[in-house]
Design goal:
Layout (H helix, E strand, L loop, with lengths): L1 H20 L19 E3 L5 E8 L7 E6 L14 H7 L1 E6 L15 H14 L6 E6 L3 H10 L4 E7 L12 H9 L3 H12 L4 H6 L18 H12 L13 H13 L20 E6 L7 H10 L3 E6 L10 H12 L1
Parallel strand pairs: 3-4, 3-5, 5-6, 6-7, 7-8
Antiparallel strand pairs: 1-2, 2-4
The protein binds 2-acetamido-2-deoxy-beta-D-glucopyranose.
2-acetamido-2-deoxy-beta-D-glucopyranose binds next to loops.
Amino acid sequence: MMLSVIFAIFVCLIVYIYRSMKPPPPRICGVAHGPPVTSPRIRLSDGRYIAYRESGVDKANANYKIIVVHGFNSSKDMEFPISKDLIEELGIYFLFFDRAGYGESDPHPSRTVKSQAYDIQELADKLKIGPKFYVLGVSLGGYSIYSCLKYIPHRLAGAALVVPFVSYWWTKVPQDMLSKALELMPKEDQWTFRVAHYVPWLLYWWLTQKLFPSKSMVSGNVALCSDRDLVIIKKQLENPNPAMEKVRQQGDHESLHRDMIAGFATWEFDPTELENPFPNGEGTVHIWQGVEDRIIPREINQYISKKLPWIKYHEVVGYGHLINAEEQKCEDIIKALLV
Ligand SMILES: *[C@@H]1O[C@H](CO)[C@@H](O)[C@H](O)[C@H]1NC(C)=O
């Protein structure tokens, strides 16, 4: 009798643990009970759909084609304001897309840093934008740009990393520098990043449990915002972009959690070992960092750009993390990349 009660409790406990660890299934776009498909999409060779948005001049008449990669909790409808005049003057075609699991792009449960470059390459080829294109990644989307520099350098005309993501588990950046940078983050975020790196299968549980504080960056901690970032966030709250409601419609796990897991996983390469894709100066690579950015540790991006002198490093005084919401900065970024 006693034994069977203990056994029953044990079974219930296992079921409870299992259920709280297991993320709900994704709500796939365009299938029964899933969100509708409202954007153009291409189909990748593995069957997944990628949703995209084109802007700027017509691609047939463009002088420059730029693929823009959004960051964490964002999508192809992200901000990247550039004046019409500059777009026309330079002849720029922009291609935005939802990264796997975000917006209307299918989830990719085994997505990695590496798979990003190939998603981008296939998107470019399906849309026939030509043998070479520019890539520009913002924040967590920076890992996609490192991926392009590593795996498809021959396809690039130039690259920009805007307030790019830093992994605390890169192997060739001095460990003490990485640990110091990590310790500057709020405690909750440190633990969330560690869970994403060491026990990614626990991340869903970690971010949904209520015993320990786990959400800070993930739920918009103001301590991580510079004064300028706060002004931008206030503006965005007053005038929200309705398209942004679709960012996480397939589930937080497919979009946000898997993005973090991919970024913080062990990489197959270290950014400091990248080779210059433009040894003859046919193109340029840039890192943009806000001096007051409290999300991305400046020292690490400084270190990478010192190790890789072919990367042009730009530090912008007075700016925080949300550089891509400001037209003046976006135009500086584009001009440095193209002109
Ligand atoms: C994602 O962004 C939306 C605003 O677009 C915000 O309401 C939400 O809290 C954010 N979620 C996370 C997990 O960062």
